[in-house]
Every structure is written in structure tokens, then in C-alpha cells.
Amino acid sequence: MAKLLLRDRLRRIPLALRSLFRPRQIERELEEELQFHLAHETRSRRVEHGRLEATKESYRQSGDLYGLTTLVRDLRYGARLLRRNLMFTMVAVGTLALGIGLNVALFSVVHEVLLAPLPYAHSDRLVTLASSSVAKGLKAENVGWMTAEDWRARNHSFVSIGTYSWWTPTLSGAGMRPRVLRGLHASWDFFPTLGVTPALGRGFSKDEDRPHRDREVILSNAFWRQQFGGDRGVIGRSMMLDQVPFRIIGVMPASFDADPFRRDVALWKPMGYDATVPDACRSCQHLQAVGGLGSGVSIADARGDMTSVERQLTQSFPGDYARDAIVAMQPLREAVVGSVGRLLWMLLAAAALVLLIAGANLANLLLARASVRDREVALRAALGAGRGRLVRQLVTEGALLGLLGGAAGAGLAALAMASLRPWAAAALPRLSHLNLNAATWSFALALSLAAGILISLAPAMQLVTGSDGRSHAAGARAGLGAKARTRHILVAGEVALAVLLAVGAGLVLKSFIAVLGVAPGLDPSHVYTADFRLPTAGYPNDAAAAQFDRQLLTRLGQRLGAGAVVALDSVLPFDPGNYDTRAYAMPDPPILSQTDVTRKESFYDTYFVSPGYFGAMGIRLERGHEFTDDDLAHPGNSIIVSESMARLLWPGREPLGKAIVLCRTKDDIGHWAHVVGVAADVHQYGLERPAPPEAYVPYTRDAGNASTLIIRSSLPLAVVSGLVESTLARVAPSVPIENQRSMESYLSESMAQRRMTLELFAAFTGLALALAGLGIYGVVAFTTSRRTGEIGLRLTLGARPAEIVRLVVAGSLRPALVGIMIGAAAALLAGRAFTALVYRVSPADPETLAAAVAALLAIALLAAWLPAWRASRIDPASALRAE
Amino acid sequence: MSVDKSPLLQGTLDLLILKSLALGEMHGFGVSQRIGQMSSDILQVGQGSLYPALRRLEQQGWIAARWAPSDNNRRARFYRLTRSGERQLQVEVSHWERLAAAVSGIVAAKSL
Questions:
Q1: Cα Rg, chain B, nearest whole Å
Q2: Which of A117, A868, B16, B61 has the fewest CB atoms lying closer than 10 Å?
């Protein structure tokens, strides 16, 4: 074929469009052309009307460039069919909409959390770094300042390493209530490492990142808009933070508000690290680090490099590092997303299973309809439509159905996401804004088309193998057997998938119950908590702060009345925000046992608690007593340990009266403290994590530090909160109070992810079971309706209705049973995938499997029995007449 | 022999139409007339195959069409070869010549 010149190629486009959009005009022109032709025919041949029609038809086909005209015609025809069978259309579109909507909503979550790029330049080159040891593995999060400095100087892999730590300054000003803000100390190269620059003003200079020079702040876009109304003249102004003026030098871009790395940070100040204070030892780890790999450096390269750097450090400072010290590194994306990735993929897989089940149901429905359409198909075949043409028609109809379902599904997904957002945000990282974006739309479109085409394949294949030029009647009958087989395979398949989902839901439910069964070690009901902090200015020394604390607790005790217990604490159990602050905001005095000469592995979680803490928190004291005011007057002399800590340090011996060394740092000589009580173990890090060895020391505060108020009272939370606010306003109006919450809310928040998983799985499984039941019902009802004559005959010949029921049910249960067996086997094989979801339950839990199988059996029996029962009640005479 | 009754060899109709249009622009009836004249009335192309073929060739870009008044002042659709069509004609002619030579070689063979 000759090459088509561009000019002639372009000429084709308007022609194609014309045949698509102006079919009538084209017909009119053809008519005119034919009339012209006939008028000139010399031999006045009589052309019959039929022949002209044939010409027109082949003329139409020859004009179908790119097959568009046929497509439009098929779509029109399909739409007409759907309109005519409104009931069928509504059922099909509704089913598809549910399945597709579920998947689209979950995909948008997966996309937002796992797939969308982080808002940094080169986000895949960013890596978190932390000091760790072989024993501790990759769990470590922190690093000391001097160590980080040495890493910077000695490594060959990173362009830069930024460090940061939490900073919670109190904002004050004329005529405003003081507020505690969430901020970060950031090294000068923190923003350059992430590859972000302020939208307004500038970043920190190296010179500003020095002790006592660090009086600059950069604001987040959200805080800037909220506090300063988005005033661009804010640069250069000052604001009072912890009673000290800070100069505003920059505002970050709005895109950085969604910084998934450290959410909801309002402002940053230079690190300004003072290496001369006692807390600044080499082994004191209160910073976090993020590094930007050089181009072409893989994380494996960097690991090798940093291992040798750490080996040098271990040799130079053997007293400060564990012998097996390593640098724990993790791609930033993994660190941000955490363990949620597998959970989300599991949930998406579960949603996909629901869609598959829905699809199998629809395919069955279409098959049933196809047998009604046999005559239409046969007629069209007789009129000369090729088999390919007919298949194409069916697939186009399926795609149309899929698109309708997809459009409704996207609507459902948008609705679902509006309600999903706050709910999932509690359980998942990175979910600050969830919406339908281009990626989600493409996914929805692809899914709709795929679903529509897949469900039309079964009837289409039937067409190919079925009516093959044989007489219509013979074709129909032969097709009936094959159709029944296809239908049974589809039912077996959807039952198998439903078993798989039911097993998953069972495991999730059992795990949830197991987690609920864990005793937290404290009694969270009727406990009110709130954070507050004392400004350094009003309370210059520890004695003044202690005076304030005593005064506040006494006043509150008086106002709340008898029965209320009031206490103070440094760190609340289950509070995820506190994992980071613990080391920095409240440097815990590490504890060393008397016998532990080598001073290794002897740092334990330590909590500062006031007298009355154990009563207020509902923590059982196994032995000894709470701290008294006398202990408070001589802090450091007494200590309360948890049961597991007592077991660890003095196995099988009486812990009361034993002494251990308390020291703030490794270099601190420390002093002796005596055990005055043994408390029950508390699951500080959440119910699913084992309770660590815990120690409690009398509450002392460094002025300026935050502390938590704990009140156990039978009064409602709102009443307690009102009393606290009014008391505080009278005692110290300049002290901000934040975060007034019930202890129960912390506990339930720590279970948010598990609850979300359970609720989603329960919903999916409910849908799957309903769909599987409907699928079985549909097939049995269809077959019995075809067997009406036979059943009528049996009844006439004396069969009892019960026998008919047994006959039909037994005959139709086979595909369901096969499906159940396949599903059970698949669930056992898939057990490994479930390990991410379970807690103290075996993925191959026999009870769960048995329950899932029983549920499906019951549903299958019910779904088969209903139509069987109806069939057994027919009037034999009329049934036979119908035949 | 009528083209409508015994099917032409696949693609031959396209060649005939392109060839007749090579002589100049004309309407559909003219094309069928000219094919008849040039083949001494052996080949007759009826409207049933002519117009679908014309449309197909137009869609493929080998010919272009426009409405214009005819000799008796009736409106008619006139077809002409495009530049691409001229090349396509050469391609089809050489194809045909090879085919014809091959077929007559077989037919002329004495021992079959």
C-alpha cells in the first residue's frame, strides 16, 4: 500500500467525525447520489427496493472509520436494552457501584498513604538515621548531638544530615491566653536536606545554629494564616515564645503543611545546641536525624559506609557506645508509613474480593439473561451478523454497564471518603487530605471497564461455543448444559472467595477480642487528664514550681470534694505523641541495679509521679505504698518498681527495701534509692506491646517543663474540666492548659487501627456473604424455573413436596460445597498473608475456619432451600400445562 | 460478465475505480460508465458495489469527493484522485501486473 501523505491523512478526520455525528446527512446524500445514478442508467433496470437497502447497509459499513460508528451504534443499542430492563439494570449497576465504590475509596487511601510522593525534592533519597546496636535492631529512633556531628564529618554517602528534636514553646502576648505550640528545634541544614525552602523570607543560616544565637523562627503556612491572617509583612516581626522575643524570618509553603514526617508542626527554631550542659553527653540521644543520600548512592552503600564510621567511633569512645553499635537506617517513606502498608494492601485485596464476588453474580445474571436473548441472537445471526460482531455487541454492553456502575461507584466513594476521612486519619499516617484525584479517577475508570468487560465475557463465550450455525433449537439446548456448568463454576468461585473473606474477618475479630482481653494494668474509667506547663518567668526555680504544684493539687482536691484523687505525671501511658518527647523533654534518670557492675543495658523507662498517682490512675500496688509528701521532699531517695522490673532485678527475692543507683546520665555517679513499692505492670506502649520494666520516681519538675494532671472523679469530664480551668485561672492565669481528655480516649485511640481493620473487614464480609447467598439463590431459582415441568410430573406421580425440596437442594448444593472446600484450602494457604492482622491467634485457627465454613454452609442451604420450597408448592396440573 | 454477479478478484474493483479516476474528476455514474467502456462492456460495476467502494476509498484517503453541478445541471458528487491515491494506483497496477502474469502463466501452460 502506498504511503498516505499527511494532507490526505488529515482529510480523513472530518470524514470520520461526519459519519459519527451526521449519519442522517450522509444517508440523504447517498440517496441523492443513487437517484442520480438510477436516472442515468441506460437500461432501465428495475432496481428493487431491497437491493437499494443492501447498498445502503454496505455503504454504512464502508464508512465506519476506526470502528467508531459501530461502537456508537452498539452503545445506543445497549443503552436501549438497559432502559428496557430497568429492574435488571438497577440491580446490576447497584451491585457494581458497591463493589467499585469500595475499591475506589480504599485505593484513594492507599494512594494517599503509600503511593503519593512525599512533599520533598528527591524524597526517595531521604533516609532516617539513628544510633542502635545489633541487639536493638532497626527500632531505634534517636541519636546524640556529638554522634551526629561525627557522622556528618566522617561519612562519604550523604550530601547532608539534618537533625531535629521536639520543641513545645508557650506563646504569650498582650491580651491573649497563653498557648502551647508544637514546634521543632531544627539544625540549619534540616530544610536543605529535605529539599524545601520557605515560601516567604529565608531559611536558617549556619551562623544562627549556635547556642544563645538561636532566636529566629520559621512559621508553618497554616500557623501563619491562623495567627497572622496570612500577613506578608510578618517577616522581621517578633513574637514572645517562653517569654523570650523571637524574630520571624520565614514562612513555609502550604504544601509543607501536610508534611507527613512530623505532622502539625507550627514553627521551627535553629537547633542552637549547647554542648556544654551535662545532658549533652555522647550517649545522650535526644535528637532525630534525616539524611539526603548523594546521587547514585544506594542505601546499601550508605549502610556499609556508616557501619565503618560507627566502628571508628566505637573504637575512639569505647565507654560511650555499645560494642555492637550500628547505625539504623530506613528510607524516609518506610519510616513515615510504618507497618501500615501491609494492612492497607490486605484491605484493598479484601475489597477486590468483594468486587470479584459481585462480578461473578452479575456474570450469572447476564448468563441467565443471555438464554432469554437466544432468539434475538439467533435472529441477528440469521440476518448475517458474524459471531465476532455479536461478541463485540455483548462486550460493549458489558462495558457500558461497567461504566454506569463505575460512575455510581465513584459517587459512593466520594460519599464514603467524606465520612472515612476523620475516622481513618486516627488510624493511618499521611491522611490529612483525602480526595478523588487524577490517579483515583483513572483507577475508577480502568476498574469499571475491566469489570464490565469481564462480566460480559461469560455470556460472550457462551455465544462463541453455543449457537454455532446449528438449528436454533438444538443450539439452545446444547448451550443450556454448558451454561449450567459455567454458572456452577461462577457460584463455586464466589463461595470460595466469600470463605476466604469470612476467615479473614474471623481472624481479625478474634484478634480484636484478644487485644481487648489484655489487662492494661490501669483503670482508665473516670480519669481526666490535661497537659499544662509553667512558664520559666513566673517560676524561676524548682522550689517555686513545686510550691505551685502543691497549691494547685490542694485547691483542686478541695474543690472536687471527697472521693476525687488528683496527681501529676510526666508521661501518660498509651500517648503515642510521647515516644519522641520522652528522651528530650524529660531526660529520665536511668536506673542501675546494685549488682550491675558493668552498667550495661540498664536504662529503664522511668516516670515521674506525684503522691496519689497510683490511686488516680487505678494502678494496683502489689506491695508497699505510694509516694508520700515526705518522699517528695527528698526526691531520689525512694523508688517504686513494676512487677516485671522486680522480677528482673531480684528474681525470687523480696524487692521492698532493696536499693539501686539512680543517675541522670552514664557519667553521673548517681545516688542510692530504696524501693518503697511494687506496682502492677502497665502496657505503656499500647495493649499489643508487652509491658516493659518500669520504674517510678517522686515527681520533681524542671521549671518550664510540661506535666500532666490526672484526676479520678465520679463527676462528668466537662464538670471536672470546668473546675480545673477556673481553679487555674485563679491560681495562675498565665499558665496554659491543653489537651483535656479522658484516659479512656487515649486507650481507644491506641486501638484505632485495629478497630478500623475490624469494621472494614466486617463490612466487606457481610457484603460478600450476602452476595454469595444471592448468587446461589439466583442460580437455583433459575434452574428450578426451568424444571417446572419435570417437578410437576414428579408431583403428579406421587412425590411428596419434602422429597422435591431434598432433590433440588441436594442437586444445587454441589457447587457451593466445592466452593467451600476450595475457599477453606485457600484460606489455609493464605494464612501467611494474615499474620500482619492477627494478635495471639494462629492464622490457621481451626475455630475460625470452622465458623467460616459453617456460615457459608448455612447461607448456601438457606439460599437453595427457598426456591426449592417454592418449587415444591407448585400446582402440578398447571406446571404440566405450561410445558 | 457483470461485476455484481460474479465477484471480482479481491481488490480489483479498487484498482478499476482508481484507474478510471486517473483520467479526471467524475461522478459515480461516470465511473461505472467508464469502466464499462474501457472493458468493452465486459466489466459492469453496479451501484451496489460501486458506492460502498467509493466511500471506502474516500475514507482511506485515496480519493476526495465534492458536490458540483453536472452536465444537465443536476447536483452530483464528483470524485478525484488525491496525491496519495495516484501513488496507490501505481502500487495496485504493479500488483495487478504481477498477478495477471502469474495467472496467465499457469493458464497458458500446456501440460496441466
A1: 15
A2: A117
Please write the tens of the pLDDT for every residue from A778-815: 888 888 887 888 888 888 888 888 888 888 888 888 89
Q: How many CB pairs under 8 A join A and B?
A: 90
Q: Partners of A239 in the beta sheet?
A: A246
| CA closest to B62 among chain A residues | A8
Q: How many CA atoms lie within 13 A of A371 on its CB side?
A: 19
Which residues touch A286 (CB under 8 Å, ≥6 apart)? A142, A144, A145, A165, A279, A583, A584, A587
Strands B75-81 and B63-69: what pairing?
A: antiparallel
Preferred mutation among B55, B70, B87, B95 to probe A, highest tally of A CBs within 10 A: B55
A197-206, A476-485, A529-538: the lowest-pLDDT one: A476-485
Q: Is A40 on the interface with B (CB under 8 A)?
A: yes
Residues A340, A142 contacting (CB under 8 angstroms) = no
Given an 8 Å threshold on Cβ–Cβ distance, is A63 in contact with B84? no
Q: Report the SS3 class of residue A713.
A: coil
Instruction: Identify all chain B residues contacting A54, using CB atoms and an 8 Å cutoff.
Output: 48
Is there a contact between A408 and A99 (Cβ–Cβ < 8 Å)?
Answer: no
Nearest in space to A684 (alpha carbons), one of A604, A622, A616, A758: A604
228-267 in A: which are within 8 Å (CB) of B?
none
Cell of A827: 484460606
Q: Do A8 and B76 touch (CB under 8 A)?
A: no
Q: Which domains does chain B have, with CATH numbers?
A: 12-107 (1.10.10.10)
- Quote the radius of gyration of chain A (alpha carbons, Å): 37
Between A839 and A473, the higher pLDDT residue: A839
Domain ranges of chain A: 6-63, 136-323, 340-517+752-882, 535-734
Alpha-carbon span A294 to A55, nearest angstrom: 71
Around Cβ A832, how many Cβ atoms within 10 Å?
A: 9
**pLDDT reported for residue A707:** 80
Q: What percent of chain A has pLDDT over 90?
A: 27
Q: Which of A167-176, A478-487, A665-674, B17-26 has the highest mean pLDDT?
A: B17-26
Question: CB-based contact (8 Å) between B4 and chain A?
Answer: no
pLDDT tens digits for range A515-567: 888 889 999 999 999 988 776 666 777 778 888 888 888 899 888 887 788 88
Disruptive mutation site among B13, B51, B90 for chain A (greatest number of A CBs within 10 Å): B51
Alpha-carbon distance B71 to nearest alpha carbon in chain A (angstroms): 12
Rounded to an integer, what distance in angstroms lies between the CA atom of residue A352 and that of residue A358?
10
CB A192 within 8 A of CB A203: yes
Chain B within 8 Å of A835 (Cβ-Cβ)? no
Nearest CA in chain B to A2: B88
> Which of A3, A5, A6, A8 should we substitute to test contact with B (largest number of B Cβ atoms within 10 Å)?
A8
Q: Which residue in A has a C-alpha nearest to residue B86's C-alpha?
A: A2
